[in-house]
From TrEMBL:
GO terms for molecular function: unfolded protein binding; zinc ion binding. The keyword Transmembrane does not apply. This is Chaperone DnaJ C-terminal domain-containing protein. Residues 2-104 form the Chaperone DnaJ C-terminal domain. Keywords: Chaperone, Metal-binding, Repeat, Zinc, Zinc-finger. GO terms for biological process: protein refolding. GO terms for cellular component: cytoplasm. The keyword Repeat applies.
Length: 123
C-alpha cells in the first residue's frame, strides 16, 4: 500500500486527505521473483541432460542462449547473469534456471535397445 499525504480529495472547507494506492502484482506464467533474481523451471530431455545442449531461453529482453552442461540433474540450478530484475543502482539480478530432467513415456524399439546396452555397461 502506498500513501501519498495530502494528495487525496479535500472535504468542503478542509485540507486534502491522503491518497492510498493498493498494487496487485499478477503471477507470471514462467518466472517468480526472489529478490532481484527471476527463477524459472526448465524441462530438459534425458538426451540433453546426458550429452549437454544449448537451449534458447525467453528473458525479459528477448532470447538468451543457455548452455546445458553434460550430466546435469534434476534440481541443478543454472544461471543467466544480468538478465533478471533491474535495480536502481546495482545493474540487474540474474535468471536462475531450475532443471527438471524429463523421461520419455514410451521408447521406440531402437531407443529401448540402446538403453539396454547402456544398462549392461553399468550406466
Amino acid at each position: 500500500m502506498i500513501r501519498l499525504s495530502g494528495a487525496g480529495e479535500a472535504v468542503k472547507g478542509g485540507a486534502p486527505g491522503d491518497l492510498y494506492i493498493k498494487i496487485h502484482v499478477k503471477t507470471h506464467r514462467v518466472f517468480h521473483k526472489e529478490g532481484n533474481d527471476l527463477v524459472m523451471n526448465l524441462d530438459v530431455k534425458l538426451s540433453d541432460a546426458l550429452l549437454g545442449a544449448k537451449i534458447d531461453i525467453q528473458t525479459l529482453d528477448g532470447l538468451s542462449s543457455l548452455k546445458i552442461p553434460e550430466g546435469v540433474n534434476t534440481g541443478d540450478i543454472l544461471q543467466i547473469k544480468n538478465k533478471g530484475v533491474p535495480t536502481q543502482n546495482r545493474g540487474r539480478g540474474d535468471i536462475l534456471v531450475n532443471i527438471r530432467v524429463t523421461l520419455p513415456k514410451k521408447l521406440s524399439k531402437s531407443a529401448y535397445e540402446a538403453i539396454q546396452k547402456l544398462k549392461e555397461e553399468g550406466l
